[in-house]
Design a protein that fits this description.
alpha+beta; 2 domains; 3-stranded mixed beta sheet; 3-stranded antiparallel beta sheet; 7 helices; globular
């Protein structure tokens, strides 16, 4: 493929999920390829999420986490509409992550969720025009064979199926309580917080991501009641890419 053919192909790829007036390129960040030393562009997960929300304002994500051997395996699904049945997803991906010895504050569960969501969004076409899309590849990631996948292998790593996880029996365990030795996941706790808005009585803050994102932003910024609930809403907004400012 000559230069002109490649430029034409890339130009066509940029039309995938195109939105009039929106260019994701300014949201990309530079990184250095560990093999070639080249400076390349990567689209972060938060930018992928924001792009997805612009393209599918009524879309939703689902995330399930299963404990593996010294790691968590997360599976993410992307849906065009929050009303779509579970089997009608746009894309799906899994990722495994373990604890990082130099960064004890990083939750391996959240890291796995972020990685899986970034891959799922990339599979759905959000960021294919960049050299990489999703989380950064400058940290080692645990695979299910107990080996470290470094930057050189990041682009060739195959998502690990849940059937390969120790203790997974092939059944849907998304609602199964997962034993965690460390402290409880802050994002998961925030998702379970009750929504304080009267008309959404009985719903959680996590439900508001798909039901009424604007209401979630209001709780994060203007709810005068419980600051704990407001903090939880802000955490969800930051994770989902909502504008909390």
């Amino acid at each position: 493929m000559n230069g002109n053919d490649k430029s034409t192909a890339v130009a066509m790829i940029t039309k995938i999920n195109a939105i009039e007036g929106f260019d994701p390129t300014p949201l990309a960040v530079e990184y250095t390829d560990m093999n070639t030393e080249e400076r390349r562009l990567r689209l972060p997960v938060m930018a992928q999420v924001a792009w997805f929300r612009l393209k599918y304002p009524e879309g939703r994500f689902t995330l399930s986490v299963t404990p593996g051997k010294e790691c968590f395996v997360a599976t993410a699904r992307v849906y065009k509409n929050y009303m779509d049945p579970p089997e009608c997803f746009l894309s799906e991906a899994s990722a495994a992550r373990g604890a990082h010895p130099t960064k004890p504050s990083i939750s391996p569960r959240e890291w796995a969720q972020t990685a899986a969501l970034g891959i799922a969004l990339r599979n759905a076409g959000f960021g294919l025009q960049f050299h990489a899309a999703g989380e950064s590849f400058d940290e080692p990631a645990v695979d299910e064979l107990g080996q470290l996948i470094g930057p050189a292998a990041a682009d060739t790593a195959v998502p690990i199926p849940l059937t390969a996880v120790e203790g997974f029996n092939g059944e849907d365990q998304s609602d199964t309580e997962i034993p965690v030795k460390s402290e409880e996941d802050p994002l998961e706790n925030a998702m379970k917080m009750p929504c304080p808005i009267g008309k959404y009585r009985g719903k959680t803050l996590g439900d508001m991501v798909s039901i009424d994102p604007k209401a979630l932003v209001w709780v994060a910024n203007k709810f005068p009641g419980d600051p704990v609930i407001s903090d939880a809403a802000r955490r969800i907004c930051e994770y989902a890419g909502a504008a909390t400012a």
